[in-house]
Amino acid sequence: MQIAVTHTHTDFDALASLVAATFLYPGAVGVLPSQLRPNVKNFLALHRDLFQVFSARELDLEKVTGLVVVDTNHWGRLDQPDLFRNRDGLSIDLWDHHMKGGDIEPGWKCQEQSGATITLMLREMKDRDCAFSPMHATLFLMGIYEDTGHLVYPSTHAEDVHAAGFLLENGADLNVATAYLSSSFDGGHTDILTKMLEFSQTHHLGGYEVGVLLMKVENGLTMLSSVVAKYKEIKGLDAAIGIFTACSDRCMVIGCAGVPEIDIGGIMRKLGGGGHTGAGSAMVRSDDAESVRLRVMEFVAEQLNRPRTWIRDIMSRPEVLAPPSLSLREARSMIEASRSRTVLVVEDGRFCGSISREECAKAKTEAQWKAPVKSFMRRNIPVMSPGDVPREALRLMVETGAGVLPVIEDGRLAGVVTRADLMLHIYEF
Ligand SMILES: [Mn+2]
């Protein structure tokens, strides 16, 4: 007998992949883990009979000679891994979009980066012309949508989007999909979210904002990852990490991040868990939540300390500089000729202020046009150091509206960061 298995706390990508395995391996049945995510459980409560999936209790697992492992590559994430781990003559096929951290050694595998495992399996189903019903298409689509955040997570690949189109062509029902994908918060969740918003600490690490909260929660509370994601979204954080304690000897660490510099999956693997760059979790055996928090912060700092780009790498030479004695009229012609639309005022290599069209607009009389720029220039513009991160420049530009940031080293103007410099860095033109 050949069975398909997947990770516990099964999400829609895992369930969709389990069902897809029953198409790709004729005769195989899917075995549902005992723990399913609540929305998956709700979906199966109604639709289970449409799919070749069973609980372990309904089958004789001693008869299994072949495993198809989907959406995980880790024995520890399967139910009863010891039943299969060392079984002689067991054939193992693996389909997964997690690239790291696995200890399952399959005889054959399809392991590729994609937004969802089901995308990889659909490629094969399409090639083999497998026929499936609109409700199957709906389930497969939910797998793609859930793992790609409705096709917007940076982990989304073009193939995921093509696969979603293919499923819509095959009758996937968006009303059904959205009904099960939208997770509704109950009182417990709103309570946690409120506490997170009120009591969490925001750490400023290397130009990034990371929110962290330690909290006691009721045992058995699910969907905490959606609460952490919501908290990150509302606060506009770069990353959010919740450390939840439900019983005395374990902490559940759940994180999400929106910047590639903070690899949540990498942090969770160090804690014994797993995940992707953007989201992950770990169950840590410890009765000291505070020490877990310190370890998490250390791992975040470690990631942000990896070699990367600094302001000194992206700054440019100032295009136009003016002495404080230059007349406002002359400064205006310099501004008009300049691409960055700002002229920096410098005296003996020291930065004094800046002048742009806005300041020029204040001049009304001929006397004012003849006056030196120093009486009109803006003095309070934010400055940077060569060792700051580009991210910080972006934040300052957003907050102050400045389009040019002077870079000061040892009191002297070392360069400038313009919008063009930042765009070159961000988009890697
Ligand atoms: Mn997945």
Please tag this protein with its features.
single chain, 429 residues, alpha/beta, inorganic pyrophosphatase (n-terminal core), Diaminopimelate Epimerase, Chain A, domain 1, CBS-domain, six-stranded parallel sheet, six-stranded mixed sheet, 16 helices, 37% helix, 22% strand, elongated, binds manganese (II) ion
Summarize the structure.
It is built from 16 helices and 17 strands. By secondary structure, it is of the alpha/beta class. 37% of the residues lie in helices and 22% in strands.
Structure description:
The protein folds into 3 domains: 2-181, Alpha-Beta Complex (inorganic pyrophosphatase (n-terminal core)); 187-304, Roll (Diaminopimelate Epimerase, Chain A, domain 1); 311-427, CBS-domain (Roll). The protein has helices spanning 12-24, 38-47, 117-127, 134-148, 158-169, 174-181, 187-199, 224-235, 264-270, 289-304, 311-314, 328-337, 357-360, 366-370, 390-400, 419-427, and strands at residues 2-6, 29-32, 53-55, 66-70, 91-96, 108-111, 201-205, 208-216, 239-247, 250-257, 274-275, 279-285, 321-322, 342-347, 350-356, 404-409, 412-418. By secondary structure, the chain is an alpha/beta fold. The longest helix is centred in the last third of the chain and has 16 residues, at 289-304. Helix 1 (12-24) runs parallel beside helix 3 (117-127) and helix 4 runs antiparallel to helix 5 (158-169). The radius of gyration is 28 Å and the shape is elongated. A 6-stranded parallel beta sheet has the order 3-2-1-4-5-6. Residues 13, 71, 97, 116-117, 147 line the site of manganese (II) ion.
